[in-house]
């Protein structure tokens, strides 16, 4: 007998299937040495590569600029005193330097997202049609290749560097939709928060590790090695992914029969039997989907503002050297990674053990993960040259953002598991816009690099975050939508 879950707030049309009734009948497969958690770890490594390739330019940019030119153009009375730091080694600093103004820097930092936005929806469709494994694999491999070509492109000129970054974005654009499609076939409903937060923790760790490591590489070698080192790490990932990952439990040659049955049986009443039919009209008119779109867009405005410009803020305002810069820029994302994993455990505990409705959990975690960052981001703008307080507030801001990993961020799998890749492609398309325009707007607003200018940047990000949290709280849902439920009888696994 199937049980049903009402999704609250008087939406009488929603009477989707509840997952728990089916999963309780299936013997759970152990976590240790399981294929699904192996996939989580390897996909986490993949997202580590994705984000390390995305953010390393943010630190390298500080070292790519002609500092003599920059210092005469940018210093003003409102800048904080520079910190004492050890002299850089004299050897190996042979890389070219560039006289790019703040507008050009903004275009270079944002150019990645112009490519990234193009392959979001196609990525979701192609992953569902042809399988997510090779789509994600070759997408990241392409990004790796263009990363290795970055120093050559920079020497040719800013326009060539922008072109290479756009091509990197095209490659990375398919990764999240492909991985959501993969998880739709691999993640038992009551393990979703755990598996997905393990998987996407790699994105945070890529930021946490690549920012300080990029700073050290720039300090001891030069900025070109930033792209060579992380490119090599990406090549290693591709080899592992090619040999160890499979599209579904039924195609995995080494999965235990117990785990295969556990996964497929828990998902049999969620996944549509008609893989070729996509209810586009129902998808684009779905209020729960548009609630995720608004939340994702709003959250990413703050996230991408800090991701691309925090090293610049640390250098131009707080006066930290390239070596100190990377380490301090990583602190916010370290906190974000920790809270993302913890929130995944707590979210699944609240849903499974405490029987909280999924919609309540998703909305609560989204609210905390969006309002918290907004408050502390604004506060950071009023710390002046109190370096400790500024770094502390920025760290708390990004850390609280990690809570949303168990909120709207995985809500696609709750409302339409069969079409999760396509839904993620749609929401991530809109959520990429902040990465395209955010750095350009922020650099346009901070031409004189005053604290007051940066306060304006932080206020804009906080206001957008607040708006997104309110919209998602009102319109978000937590259960499978009627248009996403299979319309015919199950034909088995």
TrEMBL record:
KW Signal (keyword) present: no
Transmembrane segments: 37-57, 107-127, 134-154, 225-246, 289-310, 330-350, 365-383, 389-410, 422-445, 457-475
Region annotated Disordered, chain positions: 1-21
Domain of life: Eukaryota
UniProt KW Transport keyword: yes
GO-annotated cellular components: apical plasma membrane; basolateral plasma membrane; lysosomal membrane; synaptic vesicle membrane
Any one GO BP annotation for this protein: carboxylic acid transport
Keyword list, A-Z: Cell membrane, Cytoplasmic vesicle, Glycoprotein, Lysosome, Membrane, Symport, Synapse, Transmembrane, Transmembrane helix, Transport
Membrane topology of this protein: Multi-pass membrane protein
Domain annotation Major facilitator superfamily (MFS) profile: ranges: 38-480
Gene3D superfamilies: MFS general substrate transporter like domains (1.20.1250.20)
Recorded catalytic activity of this chain's protein: N-acetyl-L-aspartyl-L-glutamate(out) = N-acetyl-L-aspartyl-L-glutamate(in); L-aspartate(out) = L-aspartate(in); L-glutamate(out) = L-glutamate(in); N-acetylneuraminate(in) + H(+)(in) = N-acetylneuraminate(out) + H(+)(out)
Subcellular location: Basolateral cell membrane; Cytoplasmic vesicle, Secretory vesicle membrane; Cytoplasmic vesicle, Secretory vesicle, Synaptic vesicle membrane; Lysosome membrane
Main location: membrane
Single annotated GO MF: symporter activity
Biological role stated in the UniProt entry: Receptor for CM101, a polysaccharide produced by group B Streptococcus with antipathoangiogenic properties.
The protein's name: Sialin
Organism: Seriola lalandi dorsalis
């Amino acid at each position: 007998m199937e049980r049903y879950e009402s999704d609250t707030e008087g939406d009488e049309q929603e009477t989707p299937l509840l997952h728990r009734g089916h999963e309780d009948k299936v013997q759970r497969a152990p976590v240790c040495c399981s294929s699904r958690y192996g996939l989580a770890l390897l996909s986490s490594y993949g997202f580590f590569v994705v984000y390390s390739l995305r953010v390393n330019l943010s630190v390298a940019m500080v070292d790519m600029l002609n500092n003599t030119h920059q210092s005469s153009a940018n210093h003003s009375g409102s800048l904080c005193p520079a910190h004492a730091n050890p002299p850089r080694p004299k050897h190996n600093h042979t890389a070219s330097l560039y006289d790019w103004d703040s507008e050009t820097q903004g275009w270079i930092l944002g150019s990645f997202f112009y490519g990234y936005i193009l392959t979001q929806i196609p990525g979701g469709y192609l992953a569902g049609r042809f399988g997510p494994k090779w789509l994600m694999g070759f997408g990241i491999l392409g990004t790796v290749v263009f990363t290795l070509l970055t120093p050559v492109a920079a020497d040719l000129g800013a326009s060539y560097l922008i072109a290479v970054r756009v091509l990197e974005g095209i490659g990375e654009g398919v990764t999240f939709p492909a991985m959501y499609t993969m998880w739709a076939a691999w993640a038992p409903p009551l393990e979703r928060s755990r598996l997905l937060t393990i998987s996407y923790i790699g994105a945070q760790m890529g930021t946490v590790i690549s920012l300080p490591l990029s700073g050290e590489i720039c300090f001891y070698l030069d900025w070109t090695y930033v792209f060579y080192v992380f490119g090599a790490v990406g090549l290693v990932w591709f080899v592992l992914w090619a040999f160890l990952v499979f599209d579904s439990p039924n195609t995995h040659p080494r999965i235990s029969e117990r785990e295969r049955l556990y996964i497929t049986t828990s998902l049999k009443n969620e996944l549509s039997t008609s893989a070729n039919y996509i209810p586009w009209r129902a998808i684009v008119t779905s209020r729960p989907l548009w609630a995720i779109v608004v939340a994702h867009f709003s959250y990413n405005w703050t996230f991408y503002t800090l991701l691309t410009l925090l090293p610049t803020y640390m250098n131009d305002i707080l006066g930290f050297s390239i070596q100190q810069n990377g380490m301090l820029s990583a602190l916010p994302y370290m906190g974000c990674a920790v809270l993302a994993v913890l929130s995944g455990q707590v979210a699944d505990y609240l849903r499974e053990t405490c029987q909280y409705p999924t919609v309540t959990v998703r909305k609560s975690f989204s609210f905390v993960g969006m309002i918290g960052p907004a408050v502390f981001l604004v506060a950071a703008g009023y710390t002046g040259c109190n370096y400790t307080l500024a770094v502390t507030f920025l760290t708390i801001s990004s850390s609280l953002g990690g809570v949303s990993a168990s909120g709207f961020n995985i809500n696609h799998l709750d409302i339409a598991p069969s079409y999760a890749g396509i839904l993620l492609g749609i929401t991530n398309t809109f959520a990429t816009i902040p990465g395209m325009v955010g750095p350009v707007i922020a650099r346009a607003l901070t031409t004189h690099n005053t604290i007051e200018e940066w306060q304006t940047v932080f206020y804009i990000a906080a206001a957008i975050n607040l708006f997104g949290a309110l919209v998602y709280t009102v319109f978000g849902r937590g259960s499978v939508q009627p248009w996403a439920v299979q319309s015919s009888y199950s034909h088995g696994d």
